[in-house]
Task: structure prediction
Amino acid sequence: MKTSSEEYWLGIDCGGTYLKAGLYDRTGQEAGVSRQPLPVLSDHPGWAERDMPALWKSCSSCIATLLYQQNVSGQQVKGIGISAQGKGLFLLDKSGHPLGRGMLSSDRRAGDVIDAWQRDGLHEHIYPLTRQALWAGHPVTLLRWIKLHQPERYQQIGTVMMAHDYLRYCLTGERGCEETNISESNLYHMARGGYAPELAEMLGIGEISAVLPPVVGSAQICGTVTQSVAALTGLAAGTPVVGGLFDVVSTALCAGLQDEFTLNAVMGTWAVTSGISPQIATHENHPYVYGRYAGGEGYLIHEASPTSSANLEWLNRQAGDVPFEEINRAVGALPKAGTDILFLPFLYGSNQGAEMTAGFYGLQSLHQREHLWQAVYEGVVFSHMTHLNRMRQRFPRAHTLRVTGGPTRSAVWMQMLADVSGMPVELPQIEETGCLGAALAAMVGAGIYPKFSQAQQHLRYEVKRLEPDATAHAVYQKKLQRYQFLIDALGAYHARCATAEPQGSPAHD
Result:
């Protein structure tokens, strides 16, 4: 039973498949978490949408359930932050009501827009200003698609937002776009800070500048809980709500990133590798994606692709949902890199070209399902290495990799990552990095800590460390090389398919 004098900060995490709400004290100790599934609506191929009123209903219900289950009153909650997946598009009409469904970062309907922009060489003009790729799930791409394919809806747009901006609006009635997320929208000038109307003009959506709400900081108080929301959730009216965070930033905060000596790898549906830097580099050998870091304390630089542990989840569904512990035992019992089987983890997308898809190569009749599991473990790690190697070029002094996400529960998988990368792997023992990161933003906003870097120093959690094995590293390097050889060969295959002329029918006598 919690006493009425205890104070808590509420962190909400709006992810791709779940909405979660967690309560934390000022040292980051978790008092409790509530979860609700979030369905992804897909009425057409490539579409990934979310019902906006239903999203708010899930959020308010999750908050109410959490307070009830933990026997915490609304008066004990001193601040609220929201973390959410980046990109995507959530629109309000001119009356402040949801304008159709929200579109998620995984939405792929706007591929034709990207193709047109690439033919026009737009990326070369945009990237030096935004430090962003051109991507189908970006707000600007989806806005351009709506303008082309749903012009009546486009004319009704009153406010452009992302997921956590919409939930903050539901809590407070105040509109804004949070900086760590909107800075990765291609509407934001990375060096100057803030919106750049010339970007919207270049992208063919110049009208949208008039409906962009103010940019708000991660820890900036952006309104307070309204009376109607208080009655619905059990929160106290007037509770401050801060801007919040892009979930990759939340994870980096919880992983303890503060300098250029440590990188963060996230393993989930997406493989993400990130680092932080105090400044934008002027000459780089790769178009790295930048975003503003929490509280304006530098920049988050990251690489990502949907090539991580969701591949194992898919395979396991086909195999009958074997318990994760059993999979780990089976893979752990096998010799490291002991088979010739290679797996390309591209079920949900690729970091090796849009045409690349998933598959096994090297299967023989002697192989059993544990060999397939091992190949998936290896393939996911090899794919992560594509991003990690590029990030190590950008951060040559990085000597430690901090890893978060579901696979951190597997000592076998994490040791494999250490062995393949040759880097010590550290595992922060935090269950919900999105909720905790959001709660940290609320603490900074409330003045409990003056900066995010100081809030990090007061967190109390265990960090497990795994050292790489030099012998295993050498063995894995040979298999990693074969993985890349296979990708190169398939690249040539796809190029030949794209240019091959169909052969005519045989001549008849």
In short: The chain has two domains: 8-243, 251-498. Residues 8-243 form a domain with the Nucleotidyltransferase; domain 5 fold (CATH 3.30.420.40).
